[in-house]
Amino acid sequence: MNFTRAAEKLRVAQPSLSRQIQDLEDELGVRLLDRDKVRVSLTDEGRGFLTDAKRLLDQSLESIRSVRSLSKGESGRLNLGYTFKFNYVPLPATLASCYSDMPEISVSLFDLTPADQIHALEERRIDLGFVGLRPPEKSKNGANLNWECIARHDIVVVLPSDHPLTKKKEVFMLDLKPEFFVAMSEDTHPGSHDWLRDLCREAGFKPKVLQHVGLDSGIMDFIREGLGVTVAREHIKRLPQRGIVFRPLANAGKAEFWIAWHRDNASKALAHYMRIVREAVAVLH
Question: Is the terminal CB of the chain with fewer CB neighbours within 10 Å at N or C?
């Protein structure tokens, strides 16, 4: 409340400061300061304007800090797609590392079927999908996406608990030739039909698919009722197992697990998170 001291602090001439205050009052059409020869004080309007001005300056500084953090990949939003209870193991650990490394990032998880993840990636509604199977190259699904195989998992045979093959410690693919299969639907799990067909073809037969199921939990219900068998990634063991028995698939390769992201997604937060995923995979494998 002293023009001379204020001018010295701002390193401007006192008449210039007085003129700027007068110009501001003229522009607003209100008096901000009461002046006399003894003292200067804020009017009620001046006190209100001072409060608002400080708030606006704080917001301006916060905006500057935010945009600088965004430029460094330290802030923003990261949307991840996954399949609940049937997902890849490192997801929780990678999220913990993400929160630690990038506390400014807002992470959202979306429980989606593989097909829905692909569609969401194509439409840029999610940044990264833990999809699982990759659709065949000939498929139009995921044509605009980048794909990366981050793991290879053991394959298990899923049987009803009273099935004769449960007496074996491991099951060969050829043992399943007489069986009806319950398979995942291509509508929800693109590539699943080709994957099952290729496994059977290597064993010398064509699978007899009795039922295509849209949800992972649904496949267990059909098998539990004795309507067929299936083969799947070992992570299917995470689903409810009442009336179900798992046996390793003998002499089989591994089931590949793929992540995907849109080829035009240049998000620094995504790039950083993918580094975290790769590091987690390297530790596990």
Answer: C
What is the pLDDT confidence band of residue 114, given thresholds at 50, 70 and 90? Answer: very high
User: What is the residue range of 65's domain?
Assistant: 3-71
Kindly report the number of other CB atoms within 10 A of residue 156's CB atom: 23
270 vs 282, residue with greater confidence: 270
Which residues, 6 or more positions from 116, have their beta carbon under 8 angstroms from its beta carbon? 81, 188
Query: Does 56 share its domain with 173?
Result: no
Which backbone phi and psi does 198 adopt, to 5 degrees? -65, -40
> Rounded to whole angstroms, what are the CA distances from 229 to 53, 160, 178, 179, 218?
70, 7, 11, 7, 13
- pLDDT for 170 equals 95
In DSSP terms, 211 is beta-bridged to: 182
Record the pTM. 0.70
Let me know whether 187 and 231 are in one domain. yes
* Dihedral sign (CA 70, 72, 73, 75): negative
Buried b (16+ CB within 10 A) or exposed e, 76-95: bebbbbbbeebbbebeeebb
Residue 275 · residue 73 · CB < 8 Å: no
Q: Do 227 and 163 sit in the same domain of this protein?
A: yes
CATH of the domain at 163: 3.40.190.10
What stretches of the chain adopt beta strand conformation (E)? 33-35, 40-42, 75-82, 104-111, 128-132, 145-153, 155-160, 180-184, 208-213, 230-233, 244-248, 255-262
267, 198: one domain: no
Query: In this structure, are 239 and 181 located in the same domain?
Result: yes
**166 lies in the same domain as 246:** yes
Confidence of residue 202 (pLDDT cuts 50, 70, 90): very high
